[in-house]
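writing this on my phone so excuse typos. first protein, seq and then structure
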Amino acid sequence: MIVLVVATGGAYLYGRSQSLAGISGQDKKSVDLYAQALNIVQRDYVDQKSVKPKKLTYAAIEAMLNDLGDKGHTRFLTPDEVKQNSQELSGKYVGVGIVLQDKGKKVVVTSPIPGSPADKAGMKSGDVLVAVDGKSVKGEDLATIAKKVRGPAGSKVEISVLRGGGEKKFSVMRTELKVPVAPWTIIPGSKVAQVQLTSFSSNSADALVQSFNEARKAGARRFILDLRNNPGGQVDQAIAIAGDFLKPGSVVYIRKDASGKKEKVRVPGSAKPTDAPLVVLVNNGSASSAEILAGALRDNNRAKVVGTKTFGTGTVLTEYTLKDGSAMLLGIAEWLTPNGDFIRKTGIKPGIVVKMKKGEEPLLPDEVKGLSRQKVFSKDAQLKRAFEVVQGQ
């Protein structure tokens, strides 16, 4: 799942930047082979205008990383994409304001962000992307489509979608978006708060604490932590947030590095957790740090998990900066839940599985406001079940 705005799945050890180590032996032979091929192309290819060494090198790096099999997680970023990625992890977003999800052979808008350019243009949940700037995206993965939709603030992008059997086109202006990190609301006629966490950016832990405090002041005594369609982000934020609910020393996740060594990552000793009743909501759009948090709360018996199986990211990414400002986001470790469950490609299966009915989409806190409880539950079966579970605690 990708927010455009864009935050892509993958738990980050962000800010780590290293130069590449020297190469030798068989690796040197491979680099020499690439250099030989590049020289031949530069010298003899018939359309010399198309020969752009940097572009070809970028393509070679992308192909190398794609071949590792960590699809959608380990990846290459151009210098411009590095800047965009840094902005996203800091909580600043430039985009059109749609949440995208890979659903089999199609990429679907799960929800436009309220008030965003996409929302104002008329894009809706369920729209299926078919083209960007007039070029088909058929067969392309989510990350590739995201690159095409991204762009500098003030520029326009044309997005074509299928809706109700017909095609619609939207010309949307990219802009800097203010996306609330932890919006919340009280379920009508109750003392249960729905607190949605939209990302794991640099201020997510503080924003979540603030939202919980505001909800308490409004009368909330039980909480639904809504991680649906949360693509993840900085792993340190997942650890900090776990400390809001788990005792100091509790295992948040198990980190397994390239050598097979395992390390238990724990809640810091300074944590001051709340004991308020809690339920966690997840779906296939819950990835990376969202999965880490859900797994930690589940395995430590702190919260029941409701919804559908999560995305299955399972890798911890480190950013390696290259000489020209481009970068590789490389999966340097796998993470397991505190109980040792392997997550990559399999995801976290909720203890209480609730599928959405056809045509249903997760209700955002702003959408819940103003509705009756009956109307809310008729629109969101997962939220209804989470409410029933937390009420029983």
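second protein below, same order as before
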Amino acid sequence: MKDIPTSPRIALIKHNRQVRRVRLLVLFTVLFIVVIGFLSYFSSNPRVTISKIVISGNSIVDGSKLESNIKEKISGKYWKLFSRANFLIYPRSTIYSSLQKEFPRIEKLSIKLEGFNTLKVDIRERAGSYLYCGESVPEKKEDIGENCYFVNNDGYIFDRAPYFSGNIYFKFYKKIDTGKSPLGLQMLSPERFHEVMRLIDGVSSLGFKPYDLVLSQDGIHSIYLESKNNNPKIIFKEDNDLSVILDNFVTAMNQKEFAKEINSKYDTLSYIDLRFNNKVLYKFQ
């Protein structure tokens, strides 16, 4: 096969095309670097970066800790080029997830921009209606100490609780096999928790004052009642239909003789047993 000679004119045209390609490549590269440099510089301009954080709705969660958490997330740069605090590219989803994780007392959270420089964070805290205080009731009340956690209205354990003397909050005792803190766990499923609380409320409506519920591993549960001289309790089973046993108890308390005996001898009451269908058993000391 013979080589076909190339004319000087054709060779020059090819060379000029290659030169133009190289020049265009260099030009686009320079333009790209200039644009990236400009955007990098512009992203850090004080006029378009978040410099103020406004937090509202918190009463227990420390506002300074919330602000510190947010500032940590918007500090630094993406790929060492673009400011994380820029109002267009700040890491909203990262901030949202971090606050929810680090501050379990937060139930609802709203993050919005006000202008280019202000980040408004509005939170709603969970209501601490009940306490979870471990596996079993200590022999001495003072040993409860600060081992309790707040529980919301769905049975969700969401924050450590300070020590409360007396029975300010209704307390739950139940073994939770985690090997770590129970924070962020469901003590019971929301449905079962609501059933249990309807039972507790029903007992209260009959004139009793329940303050503790011990959910034992053997499936025999005890609601402890306030009393001057003893610790009476209401007993039920894990597999009881709680609406049925409450109806049985209400029916029994509507019987004058039963109610009179319970009330007149309440200071010596040992227990009221609701474990058996259509029966309400009781015992005095």
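The chain has a mean pLDDT of 87. thats all i got for now
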